[in-house]
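Final report, Chapter 2: Outcomes

The project's central promise was a pipeline that accepts a single protein chain and returns its three-dimensional structure in a standardized token representation, suitable for archiving and comparison. That pipeline is now operational. To close this chapter, we reproduce one record exactly as it appears in the project archive, with the input sequence first and the structure output second.
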Amino acid sequence: MDLKTFIFVGRSGCGKGTQVDLLEEVLKQQTPEIPIVHLETGELFREFIKGGNYTHELSNKIYKSGGLQPEFLTIHLWADFFMKNMNEKVHMTIDGTPRRLNEAEVLDTALNFYNRKDVNVILLNVSRKWSEERMLARKRVDDNKRDINLRLDWFDADVVPAIEFFKNNSSYIFHDIDGERTIEEIHTDIVKRVGL
């Protein structure tokens, strides 16, 4: 099997993490000998803000306010992750990146550097209303109406142009997946579309 690369994008609450986990299980069953490098930017930031210096403190304030982290810091975290974890024979899954057009362009250079071919970009497409209802229903401490609307606003303003970058770039295989279905239906659709 060729080495696979998947980028999952979508509004908050659309189930990216769940679908990444399910897809990774398929990869592990089909090619148990090939490890998977899983980049989850949110997890990198949750670890990063535990630090005690000035940069960590400023990042933590942004995290607590539900804001969008600065590009230099986001790119630094995932670039460092790649340098520590990439090798010539791994599958790759990416969740939570990119969140801005500039970040998409830099990620494109990283994927080219690592010679990743036939990259699948999977948009879990859900409406703003569906996303808001889903986040309110999960009742997380940080999921209040104001913070949810902030996240949905920056998705529309910042993430959509990054998605368009991949959608309009012939180097990527773009999949627009209806995310307002059951977990199983979405997973089956993804596996079929990416040819696993």
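Archive annotation: The mean pLDDT is 92.
This record, like all others produced under the grant, will remain available to the consortium after the project formally closes.
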